[in-house]
Structure formats: structure tokens, C-alpha cells
Design goal:
With about 650 residues, the chain is an alpha+beta fold. It folds into three domains: about 55-290 and about 300-345, tricorn interacting facor f3 domain (Immunoglobulin-like, Sandwich), CATH 2.60.40; about 360-490, Neutral Protease Domain 2 (Neutral Protease, domain 2); about 495-635, Sandwich (Immunoglobulin-like). Helices cover about 30% and strands about 30% of the residues. The protein has 16 helices and 29 strands. It starts with 7 loop residues before the first helix and ends with a helix. It binds zinc ion. Zinc ion binds near residues 1, 348, 352, 371 and 374.
Length: about 650
């Protein structure tokens, strides 16, 4: 899922210039917190218990546009997980349940059940063993507008099924129906075990107005004209996936088709924007090719479609083979002249088709194994398609975004304690997780990094993933113990606040670098740091480990260094406060190896415009090869 990003572009650009708040802010916030219910802090959120496993889901549904309701029948094929059982619990939120039965030789036999408005507890006709599959039938009416559910930062509410302008009273809006499953919204419109550690194949038979098209998971295998203004569309998904990825949409869309290795790649787009479809979505086949190449695993699914929904409650959602986008994806020809503002979101949702859809976070506590990868895929795609600076800029904005929220330093990346399951869709699971992956890539190198991702996907495909499984894949690939890294970053919280000072010792012909960790937490981070020391125009690279609150490092320097560049590859997830001269920053700008090196130099120059060295940097930056640097230079000439 991609969060709602109405303000994101604006916000991120401004993050280039603002000073990130220090520990004090978090501390102040802590002190001023009002008394609130914190009982959730003691409620461990583990793996959802599996008593019965979903195998196959067949739904037959029609829509009541007048009441905004779905009339459905579902046949759920299941089997007990490890021991025999004669009961089945299904999530079914706010529905009317008309009938519950067991299928026996194509005949139905009614079953007893208790329904409390959220869960149906069904008494099966007998005890079934794990080797017995059985099929339960339920006839129901889903009433999403009468069900009240809480949303989150990532999604605005959670009623699962949305009727947009169903009676057509608003002439400015199209008539659409669409669903949003994550986290557990699917069970508002389909009785199901609505947990991420369940997987099912599916068949949806949707009766829709003939004038509209439908989209769902898998392939459209058949269409039947009812000759009454409606049509039945039959969608089949032969590979298993989690219930939160179940999806359908119905509306008036043009369908623009591409192809990738014989698989249909399609863009369902409101007709007004049909001409722009390829400009908006057209890089999708190239993205698939790139991600296949990186991961060494072909796109696993039968097709890939993308669609947009009006009044969509999130930014975008990776429903398997049928990604849904906010209507901000719709850009006209003029807007597209400035570039495709939705490109990174398109990459994000596609990458979920490996990390999320193929291997699914086992519980919401482990959501980062979905979202950190999707977040980091944005950096990977931009690095590949637009160059190293564009990738570094995407990575940097993610880092700044996370650092701009000091209270998020209190949250573990793998979150076993949270108030609402929607709360885990935050800057920690996404942006911090993405930066942790960037550090891991830098630590082990590209070959081992992508090799470990391949191993993790192959070993867990059509199953579930966790940070522990990820650690095992990386240890297997690298042959190294990585407990320290995973304990520090995945099963811990926060990040280092580092003060860096340097001193030239003329008598010893050495430069002293002092790295001091100042975070408030009673915790010292283990940090592998790459340091470039430039002396007389010559670069020497050193690798050191910072493991203490204060570490001192000495490097040879025959003369005063032109510059010392700590974290030379800009890989670390930290807040850094550094004292360097304008002369060193000027040298850094002109000998930079990374986008962030140049940005740091310009930010310093912008504060020292009376210094000729600073002016030389700003003047040169107006001709920089990367537009973000040029924009920053222009802004520094006119700070208001
Ligand atoms: Zn996502």
C-alpha cells in the first residue's frame, strides 16, 4: 500500500531545507503527553492462530446501487491446519447472513452458527481432519455503509467496499464500485478468514451493468450477457494469495493494453485520460523487466492491470494483478510535461507483487517486510531509470521524512505492540525500513543483497515472510552472522544522533575524527563507517567501526586535509551534526561522489553567501547536472 500523498511532493521538497529536530523535541513531547490509554503497550500482537486453512474461494455477487449493498454467495473450500476440528470461525463484518451450509456431493446441508456482527462461528456437520477438504456455503448481504470502522494514516477508513456516486446524482463524478482490503476490510464484503497468513485461490462471478467494465484478480475467463442490461464477468485466480489482496472494481473505463512476455499489461483509465495512459503507466513493462532481472524471479502472476478509483481512501494498493491508484495518478498532457508525478508509486505497487503478494508479511507486526521493500523499490527504479542522483534523492527524501518525526524513533521496526493494526503503516515501516535496506545493501554489497532477496522469495513463495526469515536469507547468502544488524535495526527502535568533529594534528601529521553518539536512548549503535580523507587532492578511503558512545579515529594526513567525508557513500541511517569549514564544503562540492555531498555543500554555502568560496559553489551549482541541486541553488539566491 502507498500512503495518501496529497501533500507529499510539497513536503519532501521542503525537507531539503528544514533543520531536522533533535532529541529535545521528542523529549518535550514525551513530557507534555496527556494521560492516555496505554494498555495496548502490554498487548502482544503475534501471528494469527491458524485452525482452518483457506484453499479456494468462489464468490457470486451482484450489486444493489440503490442501497450500496452487495448480494453475495460464497463457497469456501478449507481444511483443518494441524488437528481435526468441527468448528470454523469466519470474519464477516456488519453483514446480513441468510444461510450457512456445508456442501456434500453438490447438495447443501444447513449448519448451525452464531453471528455477532463481526465473526460467524460455525458448527460443522462433523469433525474434519487436515486431510479432509470441506466446502462451506454462505448466502449474505454486505452493507458497507452501515459498518463503522476506523482508518489510519495510510487509509482514511476501512469499510472495504465503496460505492462512488452510485445513483449518479453528482454529474461531475463517475459511478464506480471498488474495494480496499488491507488491512482487514475484505471481510466487510466477503465472509473469509481475513488474516494475512491465509492464502486462497479464487473465482469471482460479478453481475455488473453491461455499460461498465469490471476488473478483478487473475484472468477474465468468461463473460455472459444476461440480455437485461447486465453481464456476468467471471474472474479466476489460479495462484493463492492473501484475502487482503482480493479486489474488484466496476466502472466506466477505457482499457489500454500492453504486453510483457505474452502476459497482458493493462491500464484501466477514465476515458478523458485515455490518451495519456501510456505516458502515465507506460514504463510498467520496463519496470517488470528490471525487477525480474534484479530478483532473478519472473513476474509470478498471470497478468498485471492498474486502475484508479475516485475518492480512494489510500494512495495506492497492490491488489494482486490489479493495482488500485488514487485518482492523483490521472495527469493531463500539460502536467505530464513536468514528469510523471506517480512514477515511484507505480514502481512501489509493482514491487509488492514479489514482496507482499508472493511472500506476504505473516502478521501486521511484520508489515515492514512488505512495505520497506516497496518503499526501497522506488529508489531502485529511479536509480536505474533516471540515474544515481535520482535514486540517491529518493533515498534521501525517505530518510529526511523519517527523521522529521522524532516520536517515530520510539517505535520498533518489527512492531509486536501497537494500538490499532493500521498504526503500523507509518514512516517507520516504510521510510525507515527502506533506509535500513539501503544500509544492508551497502553493508553486504549488491551481489549478496539481491542474492539474499532471491533466496527469501524462493524459500517463502506463496507463503509468509518475517524479518527473521529475511535475516536467515541474508546470513545464508553472506555466510556471516547478522544478529547484531537485525537486533539493532529490526527488533529495536531509534537511530543514532551523531556529532562529528575533526582536528588536524600538525606534529603527528594525522587528522583526528571524533564520532560521538548523542541519542537519548540508553543504547549505542554499531556502525560501520566509510571515511574519505582528501589530502593534497588525493582521496584515501578507510572503513572503521563505531561501537562506543565516543570513538576517535586517526588517519595519516601530510597536510591539512582538503576535506574529510564521513559516511562517504551516504549509506547510514542517522542524524548527523558535523563541523567543517566552508573551504572543506567547497572542496566537497567540486569533488563530490554523491548527491548528498553536493547538497550538504550548497546548504552550507547558502548560509555563508558573503564567503567567496560559498558564492563559487552556488554559481557552479546553477549548472549542476541534477535538477534538485540546481533548484536548491536558485532558492539560496532568493531565500524568501
Ligand atoms: Zn506499499
Amino acid at each position: 500500500m502507498q500512503k495518501n500523498r496529497t501533500m507529499r511532493k510539497f513536503l519532501i521538497f521542503n525537507l531539503l531545507f528544514i533543520v531536522i529536530s533533535l532529541n529535545a523535541t521528542a523529549q518535550d513531547k514525551q513530557d507534555s503527553k496527556e494521560i492516555e490509554d496505554t494498555s495496548w503497550k502490554k498487548e502482544y500482537r503475534g501471528i494469527p492462530t491458524i485452525e482452518n486453512e483457506l484453499v479456494h474461494t468462489k464468490m457470486v455477487a451482484s450489486f444493489d446501487y440503490t442501497k450500496s449493498q452487495l448480494n453475495g454467495e460464497v463457497w469456501l473450500n478449507l481444511r483443518p491446519h494441524i488437528k481435526a476440528t468441527n468448528t470454523l470461525s469466519l470474519d464477516a463484518k456488519g453483514m446480513d447472513i441468510h444461510q450457512v451450509a456445508i456442501m456434500m456431493n453438490k447438495k447443501m446441508s444447513s449448519l448451525k452458527y452464531v453471528y455477532d456482527g463481526l465473526v460467524i462461528k460455525i458448527q460443522l456437520d462433523k469433525s474434519y481432519t487436515p486431510s479432509d477438504n470441506y466446502t462451506v456455503y454462505i448466502k449474505y448481504t454486505a452493507k458497507p455503509n452501515e459498518y463503522k470502522a476506523k482508518g489510519s494514516a495510510a487509509i482514511n477508513d476501512a469499510k472495504g467496499l465503496y460505492f462512488i456516486n452510485p445513483l449518479g446524482k453528482d454529474s461531475t463524478k463517475p459511478i464506480q464500485i471498488w474495494t480496499q482490503g488491507e488491512t482487514e476490510g475484505t471481510s466487510v464484503w466477503l465472509p473469509i478468514i481475513d488474516k494475512p497468513n491465509q492464502k486462497s485461490t479464487q473465482e469471482f462471478q460479478l453481475t455488473v451493468p453491461s455499460k461498465y467494465v469490471s476488473l478483478s484478480n487473475g484472468l477474465l475467463v468468461k463473460q455472459i450477457d444476461n440480455k437485461n442490461g447486465t453481464r456476468v464477468d467471471i474472474w479466476k485466480m489460479d495462484l493463492p494469495h492473501a484475502p487482503y489482496l482480493f479486489f474488484f472494481a466496476v466502472g466506466d473505463y477505457a482499457i489500454v493494453k500492453d504486453n510483457y512476455k505474452g502476459k497482458e499489461i493493462s491500464y484501466y483509465i477514465e476515458k478523458e485520460y485515455e490518451k495519456q495512459a501510456r505516458q502515465i503507466y507506460g514504463n510498467t513493462p520496463a519496470m517488470i523487466a528490471y525487477y525480474e532481472d534484479l530478483l532473478g524471479i519472473d513476474f509470478p502472476w498471470a497478468k498485471y492491470a492498474q486502475i484508479n478509483g475516485r475518492e480512494y481512501v489510500s494512495g495506492a494498493m497492490e491488489n494482486t494483478t490489479a493495482t488500485m491508484h488514487n485518482d492523483m495518478v490521472l495527469q493531463d498532457a500539460r502536467e505530464l510535461k513536468d514528469g510523471n508525478a506517480w512514477e515511484s508509486t507505480i514502481a512501489h505497487e509493482l514491487f509488492h507483487h514479489w514482496f507482499g503478494d508472493l511472500v506476504t508479511a505473516e502478521s501486521w507486526s511484520n508489515i515492514t517486510v512488505n512495505e520497506s521493500f516497496a518503499d526501497y523499490s522506488q529508489t531502485l527504479w529511479l536509480e536505474h531509470s533516471k540515474g544515481k542522483d535520482a535514486g540517491a534523492y529518493e533515498n534521501f527524501t525517505g530518510l529526511r521524512y523519517y527523521l522529521s518525526s522524532p516520536s517515530d524513533a520510539e517505535k520498533d521496526l518489527v512492531r509486536y505492540f501497537y494500538k490499532e493494526r493500521e498504526d503500523v503503516f507509518d514512516l517507520v515501516s516504510y521510510q525507515k525500513g527502506g533506509r535500513v535496506l539501503n544500509m544492508l545493501r551497502h553493508l553486504v554489497g549488491d551481489k549478496a543483497f539481491f542474492g539474499a532477496l532471491h533466496t527469501y522469495l524462493v524459500e517463502n513463495k506463496f507463503g509468509t515472510g518475517t524479518a527473521v526469515k529475511l535475516k536467515e536469507a541474508f546470513e545464508k547468502e553472506t555466510g556471516k552472522d547478522l544478529n547484531w544488524f537485525f537486533n539493532q535495526w529490526y527488533f529495536g527502535s531509534g537511530h543514532p544522533y551523531v556529532r562529528i568533529e575533526q582536528k588536524y594534528i600538525d606534529t603527528a601529521k594525522k587528522v583526528l575524527i571524533i564520532v560521538q553518539q548523542n541519542q537519548l536512548q540508553d543504547k549505542i549503535f554499531t556502525l560501520p563507517i566509510g571515511i574519505d580523507v582528501y589530502v593534497a587532492g588525493q582521496r584515501n578511503h578507510y572503513e572503521v567501526w563505531n561501537k562506543k558512545r565516543i570513538d576517535s579515529f586517526y588517519f595519516d594526513a601530510a597536510t591539512l586535509p582538503d576535506n574529510v567525508n564521513v559516511d562517504a557513500d551516504k549509506a547510514l541511517l542517522w542524524f548527523k551534526d558535523e563541523s567543517k569549514t566552508m573551504s572543506q564544503y567547497a572542496f566537497q562540492y567540486f569533488h563530490a561522489r554523491n548527491f548528498e555531498d553536493r547538497l550538504e555543500a550548497i546548504n552550507e554555502a547558502a548560509e555563508n553567501v558573503s564567503d567567496p568560496k560559498a558564492l563559487a559553489v552556488l554559481k557552479a551549482a546553477l549548472q549542476d547536472s541534477f535538477y534538485v541541486i540546481r533548484a536548491r541553488a536558485i532558492q539560496s539566491y532568493n531565500p524568501s
